[in-house]
Amino acid sequence: MEIIKTDVAIVGAGGAGLRAAIALAEADPKLRIALISKVYPMRSHTCAAEGGAAGVIKSDDSLALHFNDTVGGGDWLSDQDAVEYFINEAPKELTQLEHWGCPWSREPDGSVAVRPFGGMKIKRTWFAADKSGFHILHTLFQTSLKYPSIQRFDEYYATDLLVEDGRCQGLTALEIRNGEMKQFQAGAVIIAAGGGGKMFPFTTNGNIKTGDGMALAYRAGTPLKDMEFVQYHPTGLPNNGILLTEGCRGEGGILLNKDGRRYLQDYGMGPETPVGQPVLKTMELGPRDRLSQAFWGEQQKGNTVTTPWGDCVLLDMRHLGEKKIDERLPLVRDLCISYLGKDPVKEPIPIRPVVHYMMGGIHTDLQAATRLPGLFAAGECACVSINGANRLGSNSLTELLVFGRRAALSAMAHLQSNQTPSSDAALAAKAKASQNRIQALFDKSDGTETIAGLRQEMMDTMEANVGIYRTGEGLAAACEKISELRQRYANIALTDKTHVYNTDLMQALELGSMLDCAEAVTVGARDRKESRGAHQRLDFTARDDENLLKHSLAHYHPTEPPRIEYLDVVITKSQPGVRDYSGAKK
Amino acid sequence: MSELQKRQIQLEVLRYNPETDTAPRYQTYSVPCLDEWVVLDALNYVKDHLDPTLSYRWSCHMAVCGSCGMMVNGEPKLACKAFIHEYADQIKVEPMANFPIERDLVTSVEDFITKLASVKPYLIPKEDKPISAGEFKQTPAELKKFKQYTLCINCMLCYAACPQYGLVPEFLGPAAISMAHRYNQDSRDGGRDQRQEVVASNEGVWECSFVGACSEVCPKHVDPAGALQQVKVASTIDWYKEHLMPWVTK
Amino acid sequence: MSGKPYIREISKTTWFLSQPRYKRYMAREVTCIFIFAYTFLLIVALARLAQGPEAFQEFLNALRSPLGVLFNVAVLIATVYHSMSWFNVTPQAMPIQRGEEFVPGKIIVGAHYGAWAVVSLIILILGV
Predict the structure, then answer these.
(1) Choice among A233, A526, A532, A543 that is catalytic
(2) Contact by Cβ (8 Å): A101, A299
(3) CATH code: domain of residue C32
(4) Which end of chain A, N or C, is less surrounded by CB atoms within 10 Å?
(5) In b/e form, how buried is each residue of C53-72, taking b as 16+ CB within 10 angstroms?
(6) Given pLDDT bands bounded at 50, 70 and 90, which one contains residue B246?
(7) Is A66 a catalytic residue?
(8) For chain C, which residues lie within 8 Å of any Cβ of chain B, measuring from their own Cβ?
(9) Predicted TM-score (pTM) of this structure
(10) B52-76 pLDDT per residue, tens
(11) How many domains does chain C have?
(12) Using CA atoms, how far apart are residues B96 and C6, in angstroms rounded to an integer?
C-alpha cells in the first residue's frame, strides 16, 4: 500500500476543508497539506447554499444581537462560548472572503449589501445574489490554487482513521479512479466532510451528503453530538426537494395556505405584516423550525394544497416584481421554471418543508478539537455547537469559514506539540485492517441484500418516524428498524467487481456511513424526551430545561445501538427563555 | 392538478470499462420514467433497479455542482437539467465529447483543472489592504461588469462542445480563459499582466476561432465565447500599443 | 490496477459535419473565400485600369457577361451572410456598459446594420 506522508490531512474539500487548507498554507508554507475529497472541490455541496452568510458589519447591528438571535434560534442548546467566538470571527472571515474576490452583492455606494433572514433581529446576511454558497466555494477553491503546498487528492474516499497510541495519526483512503487503497500518515487530521441528509428521501442535500465524515470519526471512537436535531427547511420544491432560499422570504415573499391565508399568524408568529414589507423575526421571517412546524399544523387541519407531489403550501413572490426577482433571486426563478414549470413572477410556487441540515455532528470543543487527540472537525459534519437545536439560516456558511480556520489553527498547535509518530509498522497494520474490511466487502459474493433496497428502507423509516413531529412509538420503531438494517448491511454483495470508478462500492460504503449516522439520530431522538427546536415530540411537547438542557453524545458500537451520554450546555450570558417571533409583543 | 405523466424510455448508454472492454459499446435500458424527470433520474433508476455497475458522477441535482455533464442525443448537457419531456422515447447518453473516457459516463477532469489553475484564477489585488480596514468598495456597476463570468460551474460542457479543443487538446479552452477574464474585469484586481502570458499565448485565446458552441451549450449562460473575443480585442490593443505606440505604455 | 482512459478520435477532415452549429460556423468561415475572391477582382480591375481605357472596358464587359453577373450575385449573397453572421455576434465581443446596465445586444447589432445601410447609401449616391 502506498504511503503518503503529510503534516495535516483534511478530509473534505468543501467550504470548511478549503478554508482550513488555506489557513494552514498561509500560516506556514512549509507545511505539507493533503486535501482529500471524494469529489472535486467545486462539486462539494457548499455550492448549493443560496441565501447567504451572517456577519455583523452594519452600524445598526451589534455582536450582542447576533449572539442573541443565534442562541435563541438554537433554543438555548448552543454553547454560548462557541457562539461568542463565532460571532466575533464572522465579520473578519466574510471580509477575508471579499478580499479573495467573492462577488458579494453591493449597496450603491460600493459597500457589501446585507439582506434579512429568518430569526434575525437585524439584516446581517451577506449574499451573492442567491448563489452565495456557490460563490464562496469557488472563491475558496480558486484561492486555494495559489498555494503549492496544498496537495489535492480529488476523488479519494476516506475509509478509516488511523488511531494509534490514543491519537489520530492519519487515515486510509480509496482512490476511486483505480480502486487502490492509500495510507495517509499525518500529524493531524481535520474532518470537513459535510452532513448526511441523504439518509432522508426528501432533502435539499446532494448525492454526496452521506455522512461519511461523521461516520469516520464515530467509528474511530469519538462521539457524535446532538444528532437528533435535523433541520427541515420550510421551502423546498415539492417534486424533488430543490431548495428555494430563505432569501425568498427575506426579500418579501409570503406563505399562503389553500385559502390564501397567511397562516403563520396562527402559529404565534403574527400579527400579519403588510405584504412586501417584511418585519424581522415575524411571520415569514420566523425561524426554520417554527415555519416547518406550522406547515405540519396546516396539513393536520387540511389547509394545505393538494398537488401531484403531496400536500403543499404556497410561496407567493409575485408582488416582488420581475426586476427584483431577477436581481436578487435569479437562481430561484430559474429552478422554479425549469424543475416545476412555474414562474414565481407570475404564480405562487407550491412548496413543502424538506430535510436540509444536521445541527448535530462530530463532537468538538471551541477549538474544533474532538475528544480524539489529533482529530479536528469543522463544518456541517461537526457540532461545536453554535447551532443548538435549530440553526439560523445564514449561520452555516459563516461557520464553515470560522471553524474551518479554527480547526487549522488547532491542528497547527497540535503539530507543534511534537509528538512522535507511532512506528510505520503499527500504522501499516491499522491500514491493512481497513483494507481488509473493504476487500471483504468487495469479495463477498453470497449476499442477499441490495444497496438500493436497504437504502430505500432506511429512507422510508426516517421519513415516516423522524420527521418534523416525532412520537416515542415511531422513534422506537425507527431505532429497531435501523438497527436491523445495520445488521442486514453485513449481508450485501456488490454487483460490480471491477476497480475503476466502482460506484457500486462507493454506494455500499456510503450506505454504511448513513446507517451508522441514522442510528445515532434515531436513538438520540428516542431518548430526548422533550421538544426543543427542530426536535418536536408529540408525546413530550414541552422543553425540559431541568433535565435536558444538555447535549447528547452518541458513542459508536459495531453491532449494538449507540450508548448515549449527556453533556451540559455552556451557558454564559443568556439564560433559557421564551423564543419570541411575534411582532405583537414589540 | 393532473396526475404525473408516465413514459417508457429506451435509454441507450455508451459504456466502457477499461478492465473488461477494449472499446466503448452501447447498452440499452428500458426505463419507466415520469415525464417531469430529468435524464439523471433515469440513470439513477438504472443504477438502483437495473444495473448497479453503471458509473457516472452526480450530486446536487439542481445544476450547480457541475458533476453530471454528458452528451444527451449528441448535445453536451447536464443530466440533471436534461428534461425527459423534451426528448422522444429513445434517448442516447454518452460521456462528454473531447474528453478521455475513464469508465462509462465518467470522463477525465485533470486536464481542465490544470488549465484552470494555469490562468491564476484568483484575485491578485491592486492594493494591499488589511482585513481590519474592511472590504474593498465595488459598485453594483463594477460588479455587473464581471458577474456573468463568475457563474461558471466548471461543468466543462463548453469543452465538450468546442471543436477546437477536440482538434487541439493543448487549447486552454473556454472556461479557463473566461475565468481569467472574470478576474481581469474585477475592479479589485491588478493581475492581468500576470495572466496574459498564458491567456494570450498561441494555446490560449488565439486558438479560439469563435465557433461559439461553448456559449450555446453553457447551462449558466456565462457566454465564454464573448469573454474570449473580448480577451482577443484587449490583447490586440495591447499589441498595437506595444509595437506602434511604445511611449503610451512606458 | 490502473485505468486506461479511452480516447475517441476526431476526424480532422469531417468533424464539422457532426453538428449543425459546426456547419453554420463553417459556412461563416467559407464565405470569406468569396470576399477574398472579390478583393482579388478589385486588384485585377486596378491592373486593367492601369493598362488603359480599352483594357478596362474589356474588363467591364467581362463583368457584364452572364458569368460575371453570376459571380457578383454569388459574392453578394456570401458577403451578406458573412457580414450578418459577424454583426450578430458583436454584442458578445464588444459589450458596452452604460451605468450599471449593458446596452442591449439588439441595439449594438442594429447600429451595425444602420452603419451598413448609411455607407451603402453613400456609395450608391456617389456611384450614381
Answers:
(1) A233
(2) no
(3) 1.20.1300.10
(4) C
(5) eeebeebeeeeeeeeeeebe
(6) confident
(7) no
(8) 1, 3-8, 10, 12, 15-16, 18-19, 21-22, 25, 29, 89, 91-95, 97, 99-102
(9) 0.96
(10) 999 999 999 999 999 999 999 999 9
(11) 1
(12) 12
> Per-residue pLDDT for C109 more than 80?
yes
Q: Which of B1, B20, B61 sits opposite A498 (nearest CB)?
A: B20
% helix, strand, coil for chain A, step of 5 = 40, 20, 40
Active site residue A499: no
Domains of chain B with CATH codes: 6-107 (3.10.20.30), 110-249 (1.10.1060.10)
What pLDDT does residue A233 have? 97
For residue A339, what is the domain's CATH number?
3.90.700.10
Question: For each successive 10 residues of chain A (586 residues), what is the average pLDDT?
Answer: 97 98 97 98 97 95 96 97 98 98 97 94 95 98 98 98 97 97 98 98 97 98 98 96 94 96 94 91 94 96 96 97 94 95 97 97 98 98 97 96 98 93 95 97 94 98 97 98 97 96 98 98 98 97 97 97 98 94 63
Question: Which value, to the nearest 10 degrees, does the dihedral of the CA atoms of residues B112, B116, B117, B119 take?
Answer: 140
Contacts for A414 with CB less than 8 Å, ≥ 6 apart = A187, A188, A369, A373, A374, A376
pLDDT (0 to 100) of residue B2: 54
Query: What does A219-261 look like in DSSP terms, one character per residue?
Result: HTTPPEESTT-EEEEEEE-TTT--B--THHHHTT-EEE-TTS-
pLDDT band with cut points at 50, 70 and 90 for residue B5: confident
Condensed to tens digits (0 to 9), the pLDDT of residues C99-108 reads 999 999 999 9
Q: Are A316 and A254 in contact (CB under 8 A)?
A: yes
Q: What is the extent of the structural domain holding A533?
A: 426-548
DSSP classification of residue A9: E
Supply the pLDDT for residue A580.
87
Provide the ipTM.
Answer: 0.97
Give how many domains chain A has, as a whole number.
3
Alpha-carbon gap, residue A80 to A375, rounded angstroms = 23
| Interface of chain B toward chain C, CB-CB under 8 angstroms | 16, 18-19, 23-24, 74, 97-98, 100-103, 107-108, 139-141, 144-145, 163, 166-167, 209-213, 215-216, 223, 225-226, 229-230, 232-233
- d(CA C123, nearest CA chain B) in Å: 29
Say yes or no for a CB contact (<8 Å) between A43 and B66.
Answer: yes
Place of cell 425540559: A544
Residue type, A64: A
E strand or H helix at B97, and its extent? none
How big is the CA angle at A502 (ends A498 and A507), to the nearest 5 degrees?
135
The continuous run of DSSP H or E covering A61 comes out as none
